[in-house]
Amino acid sequence: MSVIHVDTAACRLRFDDIDIPCAIGKGGACPADEKREGDGCTPLGTWPIRGALLRPERVTLPWPLTLPWRWTRSGDGWSDGVDDPQYNRPVQLPHRFSAETLHRTDQAYDIVVVLGHNDAPPMPAAGSAIFFHCWVDARPTEGCVAIAKAEMIALLPRLTPASVMQIV
């Protein structure tokens, strides 16, 4: 099992020989059982990596991935509506409940690594769309972990279905 270590106090990500800056939630870090939708906190804990979502017109794959992945499409979204029966799941847009679009105008979701936070099963309002993604100008996120796109491209082929992210 490979472990991506995220030190929320230092805003550093370590993985094998990689040691780079990262961004976390604008609300800082919080215990996973205190995570709430919209609080901007990055949940502490060890989260399995479920797979990757890649934007085809912005990412090329010169190498094979062992991690499950798929290309995103313009109507792809992720439910963050706390009353949605599909809360914290991928959805098609437009969607009857609140949902994030995965095709953003910035580069944040060009590469999205889905973390297994609050997904087995999802508990309404306990936090959705906790991703590992590309940062935008190194700004804090809404609760995700983010790194520079070039570093994400270098790290992505090293991830496997057994990889986890440990956020401390």
TrEMBL record:
InterPro entries: LD_TPept_cat_dom. GO terms for molecular function: transferase activity. Pfam families: YkuD. Residues 3-163 form the L,D-TPase catalytic domain. This is L,D-TPase catalytic domain-containing protein. It comes from Sphingobium algorifonticola.
